[in-house]
Amino acid sequence: MLFLRSTVFQVLFYSVTLIQMLLFSPAMLLPRKWGWWIVPVWSKTLLGLMRLIVGLKVEIRGRENLPAGGFIAAMKHQSAWETVTLIPLFSSPTFILKRELRWIPIFGWYTAKYKQIPINRGKRSEALAAMIEAAKEAIAEKRQIMIFPEGTRRPAGAEPKYKFGIAHLYRDLKCPVVPIAHNAGLYWPRSSWLVYPGTVIVEIMPPIEPGLAPDVFHEQMVDAIETASNALIEEARSAERPSPVLAEIDEGRVPSASS
User: Fold this and answer.
1) What letter would DSSP give residue 56?
2) N or C: which end of the chain has fewer CB atoms below 10 A?
3) Angle at CA 122, nearest 5°, toward 118 and 125?
4) Closest-CA residue to 173 (of 57, 52, 32, 72)
5) Model pTM above 0.85
């Protein structure tokens, strides 16, 4: 039954995404701020499908910690879940994403229209400079910059691998950084077809205000996200139907930092 439910959801995930992109494509002729509503509608649709088909719910804690205006949201990256479902929390978010996503037909057009920030991972110094300039523009427009400081998805319970690029953003943009933790990797694991029922808990922590030395900021951010994420994994053990991924964590069957 789990496999069947997961299959139905995965098929609908991609088909509904395609249908909505085609259906809403005329909105791309509108100014960005007038057409943005289609993105949170897409996100909420997928949240509804997760809840109805696989029984995956969400609990958000700490909404009051989100500042007004522009800031950086530094999020734990465990799953595909957080890339699509946290969008409605923000008024005008822009993701920092790999430039190859711009090349996907239709989807890439949307990322360009709504001014998501692409980076070329093959040219790190040039990519960092371009990213900072685009991020400065976004903050000036009072947008929220969504970034996964680890760069790629890490399984729940795996040793973290944070990059230092976000510290450069923090230093140059001089805006608050909001650490965000969650335990989505327990329910929609990285590279997994199966999506388990349960409740993803998201914890939004108080912002780290500008002014710290980059290395001090980086250490404080990592500690905040990792401490909260680990606590949420432990909290999930008391769920009515604990995720099978917890057994993998207990058995040490998660990648090491070198993976």
Assistant:
1) E
2) N
3) 80
4) 72
5) yes
pLDDT tens for 93-136 read: 999 888 788 888 888 888 888 888 888 766 667 777 888 899 99
Residue-range domain boundaries for the chain: 56-250
User: Selecting from 1.10.287.3510, 1.10.3210.10, 3.40.1130.10, 3.40.50.9100, what CATH number does the domain 56-250 have?
Assistant: 3.40.1130.10
Closest Cα partner for 163 from 181, 177, 153, 149?
A: 149
Helix 165-173 / helix 124-140 crossing angle, nearest 10 deg? 40
Cα dihedral: 130, 86, 42, 136 (round 10): -20
Residue 259's pLDDT band (cuts 50, 70, 90): very low
**Closest alpha carbon to 5 in 59, 50, 57:** 50
Distance CA 179, CA 193 (A): 28
> In whole angstroms, what is the distance from residue 161 CA to residue 213 CA?
20
Question: Is the pLDDT reported for residue 252 higher than 80?
Answer: no
How much is the mean pLDDT over the chain? Answer: 91
First to last CA, the chain: 32
Determine the Cα–Cα distance for residues 255 and 72; give it in Å rounded to an integer: 28
Q: For the chain, what is the radius of gyration of the CA atoms?
A: 18
Q: Please name the residue that has the structure tokens 């943009």.
A: 173
What DSSP character marks residue 52? I
Q: Does residue 22 sit in helix, strand or coil?
A: helix
What three-state secondary structure class fits 170? helix
Q: Which amino acid is at 168?
A: H
Instruction: Give tens-digit pLDDT for 45-68.
Output: 999 999 999 999 999 999 999 999
